Amino acid sequence: MENIKVDVIIPAYHPGKEFSTLIERLTKQTFPIHRIIVMNTEETYWNKELEEKFSILEVHHLKKQEFDHGATRAWAAELSDADVMVFMTQDALPADKSLIENLVKALTEDEKTGAAYARQLPNENCSFVDKYTRSFNYPDRSAVKTKDDLPVYGIKTFFCSNVCAAYKRDIYQKLGGFVRKAIFNEDMIYAGRLIQEGYAVAYAADAKVIHSHNYSCMQQFHRNFDLGVSQAEHPEIFAGVPSEGEGIKLVKKTINYLIQKRKIWLIPGVILQSGCKYAGYLSGKNYRKLPRKMILWCTMNREYWNV
User: Fold this and answer.
1) In angstroms, what CA-CA distances link 95 with 102, 186, 279?
2) Per the database record, which ranges form the Glycosyltransferase 2-like domain (predicted)?
3) At what angle do helices 128-137 and 244-260 cross, to 10 degrees?
4) I need a labelling partner for 219 at 20 to 30 A (CA). Which of 174, 181, 228, 283 fits?
5) What pLDDT shows up at residue 157?
6) Domain boundaries, position 88
7) Signed CA dihedral, 86, 139, 281, 114: sign only
8) Partners of 202 in the beta sheet?
9) In whole angstroms, what is the distance from residue 73 CA to residue 177 CA?
10) CB 181 within 8 A of CB 153
């Protein structure tokens, strides 16, 4: 592990105070980072003092209409010559100093492992329900997923999150990397290809970041619409591997958990949010049947549709 070069890649837009905290924590990791490559959208919003404070930063600016979930990360990957590329989002904070070390360890334990993603812990202001959702999606036990796990995990076999995930650069290049046009879900599309090609995806429960959102019902709708679009546009990955079963399982487990904790007044909100998620997802899966005005209302990424 000592000879492995690691770059961290972070797309950024209008970064605030928390971004400085993120960079600060990355510079104090037990595993040394070679470079932190920032793909910043709109130079106007960039604080140049960050480059003066952190010499490890390499910043590249692009315009908002140029940003794409897949293409921007693919461009950043081309700028890296590291053995391991760790992709993060600007709102994810390392929970401790061992994040990079534990990601690299999970990634390099087996030569067939092409990606490893971190555990996401809730923020202090995270809602009671979302704290449980986090524990469902990011349990405290690590796992390695391969093609053999598809009958067991279904769509979750392909799960990987660029909120914080590490990739072996040689395998990434061999498979062509992230799709160059992606409304969302570029991480799972790539992870799906990894699995299909006989590689493995590791979940590193000991690599931890603090990251959560308290989404409203409409935010869930828009987010899941884009998720549905991404799956509809990549049948080579998602056809025959339905997502609905995992969603239903999560709803049932959440309701049972709320009953056990005697917080039954939260159940209607769970049902409403779940309905918005499913409505968004179903609309996205069938976006080709919708008029353009409807699509632009449903999406959270309007620039994607400006073709």
Assistant:
1) 12, 24, 34
2) 8-175
3) 130
4) 181
5) 93
6) 7-210
7) positive
8) 116, 144
9) 9
10) no
Report percent pLDDT > 70 for the chain. 99
Q: Which pLDDT score is estimated for 227?
A: 94
198 and 296 together in one domain: no
pLDDT digits (tens, 9 = 90+) for 232-269: 999 999 987 877 777 888 899 999 999 999 999 999 99
Distance CA 107, CA 279 (A): 36
Cα(98)–Cα(230) distance, integer angstroms: 33
With beta carbons less than 8 A apart as the criterion, state whether 137 and 212 touch: no
pLDDT value of position 307: 63
Give the tokens for residue 266: 């939260």
Centroid of chain to Cα 134: 13
Q: What is the pLDDT of residues 149-168, one digit of tens each?
A: 998 888 899 999 999 999 99
Per-residue pLDDT band at 303 (split at 50, 70, 90): confident
Of 192, 210, 228, which closes a domain?
210
Question: Who contacts 184 (Cβ-Cβ below 8 Å, separation ≥6)?
Answer: 69, 223, 226, 227, 229, 230, 301
pLDDT tens-digit profile of 215-240? Answer: 999 999 999 999 999 999 999 999 87
Asked whether residue 203 falls in the same domain as residue 237, the answer is: no
| Amino acid letter for position 175 | L
Total domains in the chain come to: 2
| 170 and 48 both lie in a single domain | yes
**Residue carrying the six token digits 């909120």:** 163
Chain mean pLDDT for the chain:
93
